[in-house]
Amino acid sequence: MHLKSLELSGFKSFAKKATLNFTSSITGIVGPNGSGKSNTAEAFRFVLGEQSIKSLRGKRGEDMIWNGGGEGSSNSGRANRASAKLTFDNSSRMFASIDFDEVTIERIVHRDNTNEYLLNGTGVRLKDIIELLATAHVGATGHHIISQGEADRILSASIRERREMIEDALGLKIYQWKKLESIRKLERTEENMKQVESLRREIAPHLRFLKKQVEKVEKAEEMRRELISIYKIYFAQEEYYITTEKTRLHSEIAGPKKELSDLEHALNKAREILTASKNKDVTSDELISLEKKLAETRTETDTVVRELGRIEGEINANKRAKEKEESRMKQEEFKTVYLKDVEEVISRAELFQTVKEVIDAFRNFIKGHRSANDSQFVAEMEKEIVRLSAEKSNFEHKRMTLGDFEKKIVSEYNALKQKIEHEKDTNRDAEKEVFRIIARQNEVRHIVGTLTADIQKIDFAEAEFKRELGEAGMIVGREATQYDAVVNASNRSEQAEKKHQIDKLKIRLEDMGAGGGAEIMKEYKETEERDAFLARELVDLEKAKDELNKLIAELDVRIDIEFKQGILKINKEFTNYFSLMFGGGHAELTVVKEAKRRKKGDSEELGDMLEGGIDANLQMDANDANESQDGPEGLEVNVSLPRKKVKGLMMLSGGERALTSIALLFAISQVNPPPFIILDETDAALDEANSKKYGDMIENLSKHSQLILITHNRETMSRAGVLYGVTMGADGASKLLSIQFEEAVKVAK
Predict the structure, then answer these.
(1) pLDDT greater than 50 at residue 86
(2) Residue spans of alpha helices (H) in 625-720
(3) What is the CATH classification number for the domain harbouring 738?
(4) Looking at residues 325-348, what average pLDDT do you find?
(5) Are the beta carbons of 736 and 9 closer than 8 angstroms?
(6) Is the same domain home to 8 and 124?
(7) Rounded mean pLDDT of 420-438?
(8) What DSSP state is assigned to residue 61?
(9) Domain count of the chain?
(10) What pLDDT shows up at residue 263?
(11) What band does 618 get if pLDDT is binned at 50, 70 and 90?
């Protein structure tokens, strides 16, 4: 790769477009003082990303823009922007990341101080330009651009700044940028880890709460499955029992009912005979009256018994409803509410001004989560049970009264029967028949009454069975009512035990409050998945952190090794050039540590960075990347002149310092040659003898790097293959012209 051209447009004194083509290994730029020739060196700094406007001899970015000529000048109009563009031959792929034979880097500054960076015509970031140039050993510290008066900077710089210059020259900046980028990624990773850990800590209590709720739901589901299993067997057995018992009882009661009907018919006929009998007496009338009263009493008793059965059924139903509601109310006292609902009411309460408003808010919250009219329903049930119990008591009293009355009639009836039995009147045969029929009626009535009571019990059992079916569907779902079990005649005590188990499981289910199980399971699953995701992310971040720490350690080792190896090579070349300049002596760089302290010029330099538009933190972090845990390391310059007792930089004269700085800069360039070096009147302080040595070194350097020399020195000019002259007209605009060596000497003067 070599530098092909520099194109200026509106940059400082170059009002119009000017192009310098670098076709020779050494290009000279000459011109009188004030002609603007040093602006070409500043153009190189500008396009390569220099952010300190102060180092470009300006105060603001717009100071880089042509500001117009004097009156009557053809170039009087000021430009709105300034640009500088470098073109490189990339056929050797020095810029390995760019697959083009030619690479152009352009920087444009506008009047509003905004900057643009273009790479092959495409807008990029300054960071991209710096990283690209670092791969070709071209950096922002300017070891390859040495302006007049700045040759001594490498000697007067602090040990830390000197180290940065050397690292830049050795091509270590690319590793430091990678290290800095890794450190920033590490910081972001650690921050992300803190955030993830914080999120896990936040959801941990809620996850534990949900886990307990899920355990309750799972336990409730286990009980629900057990209840369904028992229900299926219970319902199958109960339906079989009810069906078979109803069939049996209705079959058994059919005969007695028919016999009772036949007896009633025979009794009516006997009454008719007895009534029509000529020998009828008072005894017969009394018998008929007693029989009629007995029949009426028994009919009324049957009615009372039926009513008692109805009332008892209603009382039992109301008691079950009351117990169920009381159980639900008890469950309400331990009702689970969502944390987000509590947080919401708390956030609303924080806005209230008085304690009463806060209390009212929480009362409304509790009221909203408690079922309405619960206590009122229980009270109504209790009231209904009391009413039915009173009605039952009345009917029981009535049944007892009827029973006593029936006993009295039966006693009278038996006495009359005994009297008739002792009488031998033939008319008594009809009366005896009446007694026989009534006696049989009593027997059959008892049989029918017993069977009717059994049928009534079965009817109650069937009603209870249907009610239990409906309740099972509501509590555990329709699955419990879809039974298809193998059944047989079961012991009623076994059914009673199953019913007891069912009631216990229902109560336990209601006490656990298994409602909303699907929502709890869903929320738990989502929260658990979120926690698992955060845990995996934490593992990934930990792995990334380890990899970044490993990369940073590897970069530290590589930077340290290459830096120390580079110092050895530089010292070898430094001693050679120093001996050449001074006819002997010794010079070397040594690694030393500097006490941590802020330099006096840091704030001023930071201001320049901010004014230039670069991220000051980025620049400062790049510097900090060079520091070890024990503090920053830097480079000290040690020199020893031949045939003198002079040791150390402080003892050198101005000319000796100039020669020493040139020797060091040339030594640096020899170790890791940059693609080009710009020397801006660095030979100004040299005498004729040293100028020749300087010229010889230049020719030696040109074998490794292109040289652009801004000079007044005749000897230096003679080494250039191409010479450009810079002149300035009355309008203050610089112009370029290619000239011969003899003309260059005149122009330079």
Answers:
(1) yes
(2) 654-671, 688-701, 714-718
(3) 3.40.50.300
(4) 64
(5) no
(6) yes
(7) 67
(8) G
(9) 2
(10) 87
(11) very low
For residue 7, give the H/E element and its range: strand 2-9
Single-letter amino acid, residue 215: E
Which string of DSSP letters, residue by residue, matches 413-452? HHHHHHHHHH---TTHHHHHHHHHHHHHHHHHHHHHHHHH
Radius of gyration of the chain (CA): 58
- Site of tokens 């790097």: 705
Are 578 and 666 a contacting pair, CB within 8 Å? Answer: no
Cα 12 to Cα 177: distance, rounded to the nearest angstrom: 31
DSSP 8-state class, residue 478: G
Task: State the amino acid at position 379 in one-letter form.
Answer: A
Is 43 found in the same domain as 115? yes
Give, to the nearest 10 degrees, the angle between helix 159-169 and helix 654-671: 40
State pLDDT tens for residues 251-275: 999 999 898 888 888 888 877 776 6
**Model confidence pTM above 0.85:** no
Q: What is the rounded distance in angstroms from the CA atom of residue 16 to the CA atom of residue 10?
A: 6
**How buried is residue 476: exposed, middle or buried, by Cβ count under 10 Å (0-12/13-18/19+)?**
buried
Residue keyed to tokens 């004269």? 653
Final residue before a domain boundary, out of 484, 515, 546 = 515
Q: Which residues contact 248 (CB under 8 A, 6 or more apart)?
A: none
The answer to whether residue 333 sits within a structural domain is no
The string of pLDDT tens digits covering residues 241-251 is 888 889 999 99
Amino acid, res. 689: A
Q: Report how far residue 513's alpha carbon sits from residue 495's, in angstroms, rounded to the nearest whole number.
A: 27
Question: 215-229, 311-325, 536-550, 570-584 — which one is most confidently predicted on average?
Answer: 536-550
* Residue that terminates a domain, selected from 495, 515, 535: 515
What backbone phi and psi angles, to 5 degrees, belong to 595? -65, 140
Judge whether 480 lies within some domain: yes
d(CA 749, CA 744) in angstroms, rounded, equals 9
Per the DSSP assignment, residues forming a β-bridge with 429 are none
